[in-house]
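Course assignment 3, question 2. Fill in each field.
Student: A.L.
Task: Predict the tertiary structure for the chain below.
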Amino acid sequence: MLVLGTREGLEARLVPERGYELLTIARLPFPRRVSASAVRFPAGFRRAVDETRAMIRDRGVDAVVGFGGYASAPAYVAAWREKVPLVVHEANAKPGIANKLGALFTSFVGVAFSGTKLRHSTFVGMPLRREVEQLDRRATRAAALEFFGLDAARPVLLVTGGSTGARHINATVSEAVALVLGAGWQVLHIAGARSEIVDPKLDGYRLIKYCDRMELAIAAADLAISRAGSATVSEFSAVGVPAVYIPYPVGNGEQRFNAEDAVEAGGALLVNDAEFTPEWVRESLVPLLADGALIAEMGALALTVGVLDGADRMVDLIDSARAAHQPPAISPSER
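Answer field:
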């Protein structure tokens, strides 16, 4: 398998770490206003398409699978021109520009959320990391609590804003953590690599900047507070972690839509970023923490919209796309 990306993206580090070969093209954002970069965009896009077509021919690529992002749009056009099978996966409930383009060139389009409106879409769920797909939370919980130095006798509130953190979530939790601890809970707070939060060294409060064992954090969690990124929502729902989602307030609003299925099912709450304050923690979160039966019910309801086999479903879609491009077999009587 080959991975196409850019030199500047996270893939430049993550793909080689996973043992895959990374091929790169120039990072080429879609222009959203008239500017010098917009004038240069058509030539740059044609160049990226030509480079990708050459890679497809030279490396004998027999299918292109795209997940959106800077490298996907040129790859979609290149696959169409080279007449190789093309499959698109849209991770967000609100599709991005690249995948809207890709859906024009193929009828094999997988989406992570049931309400996603995208041409030719088929609901497949999110392909999950194997560590999460195979996670048995109950069997792993004791080891997870030990890994993070948490008390097995107290429930755990997991707080995370993603790998870089979420400043407003961090600030509110830092200010209101005593309320959570006073409710008899512990807090596992993954603050993000850029966070400047200072650890108050309170009993039951575990602060870390980055977690490379998120499956263990998920196994330890009885309830989560998080942004509503597509991967986070999909992972929590797939394994039944009830959550309070606080969508990122900047961008095209896709995070609010990502959480919609889980919220409508009763497996999660949605709180606007500006409303997530210490007062909200006192008036809304603390009463929720006191209701263990409701939290357990939310976890069960989250499971009803979760998908554990998204990777298998996506592979089936890829196989279907490849089969559709195969010439029909000739029977012996036709030879």
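Instructor remarks: The first helix runs from residue 11 to 17. The two ends are 35 Å apart (CA to CA).
Grade: pending
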